[in-house]
Amino acid sequence: MASLFHPLCGSNPDVLIKLLLANGPVAVNRWPQVAIALAVSFARWPFSTAEQAFLRTRSPASMPMPDPIFIVGYWRSGTTHLHNLMAETRQFGYITPLATGLPWDILGIVRALEPLLEKALPQDRYVDNVAVTPTSPQEDSIPLATMGAESYYHGLYFPQHFEAHFRRDVFQSADVDALREESQKATSETIHETVHETAKKRWQRLHRHLLEKVSIHQKGKLLLIKNPVYTGYIRHLREIWPQAKFIHIYRNPYRVFPSTQHYFTRLLPELSLQSYKVDNLPIESLIFESYSYLMRSLKADTADLPPQQFYELSFEDLQANPIQALESLFQQLELSNFQTARPYLESYLTDLKDYQQNQYDLDTETIKKIKAHWDFQIQQWGYKAPEASPLDV
Question: Which of 82, 165, 301, 374 would give a disulfide with 235, using CB separation of 3.0 to 4.6 Å?
């Protein structure tokens, strides 16, 4: 049974109402979630407004923060595992679960009500057995979706528009039809550029605002940010953070595909506010298309980065020898204090020794499809097609 407290509880009233009006009717059995989200949103609004007013009184010079480290890679490629490992070194700041749920209130309500809010956290991430604790590092997709940036999470909340939201976020494709209704005289190219630029600027503004608040919350530590969508956003991130460092983790595509399918189909019943039939959603085709798109974008956007700003590793190497893999990562990116961090990493890895990965069947037909769509990456990284059998993913 889905929680009564939907992630949109963290939205401000204007964003929440706009999302509800733009995405069509809510399923009757989801009315309680929407009602609670609206009530929480209006109850929080005075405090959120006060927090924004407080931040506006501070000059940029009073909130200095170093350019972050970004972990990128396709969904289910090991980004969460790497994020958790690096967070254990104690030298990086990150987005906490409570900051994820209440991004407008990170410096106010979150701090004041932390003990109470922590009790509402789920035990795991729904899609796997990774535990969620009050200090678990989180990606910025959910808070940005809550704040009003384009997000594939809106497609999970409103699955009747799943593909449109996914494409606007992941492929950064413009909603041309919507703007054409407002401007019949504009050319298609002008419309696309206008919509894309407007969405990009909104995302950049919200992204920077969120990270500046997280930096204050994390006492100025170097931020470690993970987001699979950012695999295709590196050129945009470099506009905001020219000295940012990027870590790309990749994994056997034959394992990535079924695990990503599970990821989306498992999240939908937890997060959707509309009725849907999963067989009617183009999840498979979007996975195939977006993987290739994001890998091409990554290659183009990192081609001119110096070694100290870009590191690439495989999930398999990280899993086989995590200490050695992380030490190499720290050395190339010129990150300090690895030996100080090593005992924390070893302790965390000891706690993970009994972790069980999800397991799925991979049939011959699916293996053929994966090879047909992603053969370039498979060959590039030296992976081989498995026999049709259950896989740990």
Answer: 301
